[in-house]
Design brief:
Helix content is 74%, strand content 0%. With 100 residues, it is mainly alpha-helical. It has one domain (2-99).
């Protein structure tokens, strides 16, 4: 939602979103387990909002305990970003027609 509003005013956002999604895929623990990383990288990866849902799915499939606190923090972060995106869209809505 944020990218769609920015795309109206800044045309290069569409190209940047594709690059950022590729980067986000590789810095999310989709292809590897966070325990395989050095301690500094593993700690930094904990701040990635996609790490908790991915690790929760992995834990559920393997029969391990689900990290509920990290999953709740990730959901809270997603809710905050959603509220920010709705506010941004509501504020930019009267001007979007002029730029399209």
């Amino acid at each position: 939602m944020i990218a769609s509003v920015l795309q109206v005013f800044l045309r290069d956002v569409g190209f940047a979103v594709g690059q950022l999604l590729t980067l986000g895929f590789f810095i999310s623990p989709v292809l590897y387990d966070r325990a395989q990383l050095p301690d500094g990288f593993a700690l930094a990866l904990g701040f990635n909002p996609l790490a908790a849902p991915i690790e929760a799915i992995r834990a559920g499939l393997l029969g391990l305990p689900v990290p509920w606190i990290a999953l709740g923090a990730s959901a809270a972060f997603a809710l905050i970003v959603l509220l920010f995106a709705r506010g941004l869209f509501a504020r930019a809505r009267p001007h979007i027609e002029d730029f399209l």
